[in-house]
Design brief:
Blueprint lengths: L1 H5 L2 H24 L8 H19 L4 E3 L2 E3 L2 H11 L2 H19 L4 H26 L8 H30 L3 H9 L2 H65 L6 H15 L4 H13 L7 H7 L7 H18 L8 H7 L21 H15 L11 H10 L9 H10 L41
Antiparallel strand pairs: 1-2
Helix pairs in contact: 2-5, 2-6, 3-4, 3-5, 3-9, 4-5, 4-6, 4-9, 5-6, 6-7, 7-8, 7-9, 10-11, 10-15, 10-17, 11-14, 11-15, 12-13, 13-14, 14-15
C-alpha cells in the first residue's frame, strides 16, 4: 500500500493486477452462479445506459455531509447493476464508470483512479456474489428472499467499500483505519438504507421500460438534486454570514481572535465522542461559533479586556452578553429556536448558580452544557490580560473539581478522557494571533490532518 503514496511503477502494476483479479473473479462467478441474462445487443445497450448513468452520478454528486464525509448517489446505480446483470458485467460497468469519472471528469492521478476503481469493483463483486447466492437468480422479485438478499448485498457492498477506503487513508494520512471509519462512516449506513429503495426503483423502471424507464426515472432525480443544491447554497450563505459576524467581533476584541473557532472545534469533538447525531452536532457547533456574538456591543469591549477587578455594573454587562448574542442570532430565521436557546444559556451552571436565568441540571439545553465546557476550557488554556494560560493538568483538575457544580458531571469525564486527553491534539500555539489568545503553556501540537473527501456509496481517496 505504501506504493500508492509514492505513485511509482510498482504501485500501478499492483493496482492493475488487482483490477484484473477483480474482473477475473467476476467472470468466473458469472459462469458458476445462476443467471438468466443473455448477452444480446439489447443487453449491451442497457449496460451502456447504466455506464452513462453511473458516470453522470459521479460527476454530479450530491454534497450531502455526514460528519466529514460526503455522500453521492452513484452507489444506487451499482446496486441496481447487482440485481440486473451477471457478476462479471456488473463489475466491469462499475470499474469502467469509476475510471472514466476519476481520470476524465475529476482529473485524478492514475494511482488513485486505479485504487478507487479497484475498491468499487471489489465492492460490486462482493455484493453481486452475495445477492446471487441468496436470491438464486437475477431480477426484481416480490419475495421475502429477494428483499433479504438485496439488503444483505447493500450491506456487504457498503462495508467492503468503506473499509477499503479506510485502509487507504492509513497509507495517505497515517490514520488508524478504525478511527477513520468511525469518524467518516459510522452514521452513513442510515443514509444508505433509506436511499436503497431508489435502487429498486431503478431496477423496476429498467425491467418495465428498459432504457426509457431509466430516462424517465432520472429526470425527477435531477430535479431533486437541483432543489437540494439550492438549499445547500443557502446554507452556505448562512455559514458565510456567521463567519463575517464573528470576524466583526474579533475586530473589537483581539482576544477573541480564534476563540470562537476553537470553542466550536472543542464542542464538535465532544459531540463526536458522545455519538451525537450529525445534524445535532452541526447545530451545536454553529451555536458554539456564535456564542459570543453579543460582544460586538462596544460597552463590553473594555470590560472583557480589563486587567483589574470588575465593578458590579461591569459584571452586570458581562452577564448580559449571552442574551445579546441570542437576540442577535434570533434576527436570522435559521438560528431561531434551538440554536438561539443554546447561545442564550451557555453560561448556566449545573447547580443553578449561572446566568442569565439560573437554570439548573437538565433544564439547561444539552448543547449549552457542551458549549460551557468548551468555552471554559479555551478560557483557561489561553492567555488573558490578567493572567497567563493555565497548565493543562491544573485545568483538568479544575474541571473535575467543578463537575456537578458548574459543569454537567456526565460530560466532564468524556470531555477530559476523549477530547482533551493530554492536550497535544487540540491545543495549539498559533504564531499569527496576538499575544492574547495564545497558549502560554501548551504542549507541542501534532500536525493537522488534511480534510478527507470521500463518497461512502462509491467511496474513494
Amino acid at each position: 500500500m505504501e506504493a500508492i503514496r509514492q505513485g511509482n511503477k510498482t504501485s500501478l502494476a499492483l493496482l492493475t493486477a488487482g483490477l484484473g483479479l477483480v474482473l477475473t473473479s467476476g467472470l468466473a462467478a458469472s459462469y458458476f452462479l445462476p443467471s438468466e441474462a443473455a448477452t444480446t445487443s439489447r443487453f449491451f445497450l442497457g449496460l451502456l445506459a447504466f455506464l452513462v448513468l453511473s458516470v453522470a452520478a459521479e460527476k454530479y454528486r450530491l454534497p450531502v455531509k455526514l460528519g466529514t464525509a460526503q455522500l453521492g448517489w452513484s452507489g444506487t446505480t451499482f446496486w441496481a447493476l447487482i440485481v440486473l446483470f451477471p457478476t462479471f458485467w456488473a463489475t466491469v460497468c462499475a470499474i469502467t464508470a469509476i475510471l472514466i469519472s476519476e481520470i476524465l471528469v475529476h482529473s485524478k492521478g492514475i494511482a488513485r483512479s486505479l485504487f478507487n476503481a479497484a475498491q468499487v469493483g471489489l465492492s460490486t463483486l462482493a455484493g453481486s456474489l452475495v445477492f446471487l447466492a441468496m436470491a438464486g437468480t437475477l431480477g426484481l422479485s416480490s419475495s421475502g428472499r429477494f428483499f433479504l438478499a438485496f439488503a444483505t448485498a447493500v450491506l456487504v457492498y457498503w462495508l467492503v467499500n468503506t473499509w477499503l477506503v479506510s485502509f487507504g487513508s492509513m497509507v495517505l494520512y497515517g490514520e488508524s483505519p478504525s478511527r477513520f471509519w468511525q469518524r467518516n462512516y459510522q452514521w452513513a449506513f442510515l443514509y444508505e438504507f433509506t436511499s436503497a429503495p431508489l435502487a429498486l426503483a431503478v431496477v423496476y423502471a429498467y425491467q418495465g421500460l428498459w432504457v426509457t424507464g431509466l430516462v424517465l426515472l432520472t429526470l425527477p432525480i435531477v430535479m431533486v438534486r437541483q432543489a437540494y443544491s439550492q438549499y445547500l447554497d443557502l446554507k452556505k450563505t448562512y455559514n458565510e454570514t456567521v463567519r463575517t459576524m464573528v470576524k466583526i467581533i474579533e475586530m473589537h476584541d483581539p482576544y477573541t481572535a480564534g476563540h470562537s473557532d476553537r470553542v466550536a472545534n472543542y464542542a464538535r469533538r465532544l459531540c463526536v465522542a458522545l455519538n451525537v447525531s450529525p445534524a445535532k452536532t452541526e447545530r451545536i457547533e454553529l451555536a458554539a461559533y456564535l456564542h459570543d456574538l453579543g460582544k460586538i456591543n462596544l460597552d463590553l469591549t473594555g470590560v472583557v479586556r480589563k486587567a483589574g477587578k470588575l465593578t458590579e455594573e461591569e459584571r452586570r454587562l458581562i452577564r448580559m452578553h449571552p442574551v445579546m448574542s441570542a437576540d442577535l442570532a434570533n434576527q436570522v430565521s435559521y438560528f431561531k429556536g434551538e440554536i438561539e436557546e443554546m447561545i442564550r444559556h451557555h453560561h448556566e451552571n449545573w447547580d443553578g448558580s449561572g446566568y442569565p436565568h439560573g437554570l439548573r441540571g437538565e433544564e439547561i439545553p444539552f448543547g449549552a452544557r457542551i458549549i460551557l465546557l468548551a468555552d471554559a476550557f479555551d478560557a483557561m488554556t489561553t492567555s488573558r490580560v490578567y493572567r497567563e494560560a493555565l497548565d493543562i493538568e491544573f485545568v483538568k483538575e479544575e474541571f473535575r473539581k467543578f463537575a456537578g457544580i458548574q459543569f454537567d458531571p456526565e460530560l466532564v469525564p468524556v470531555f477530559l478522557d476523549k477530547v482533551v486527553k493530554d492536550g497535544s491534539e487540540i491545543i495549539s500555539k498559533p504564531i499569527d494571533e496576538p499575544l492574547e489568545g495564545q497558549r502560554a503553556r501548551a504542549p507541542e501540537v501534532v500536525a493537522h490532518q488534511p480534510e478527507i473527501r470521500s463518497i461512502p456509496r462509491s467511496s474513494g481517496l
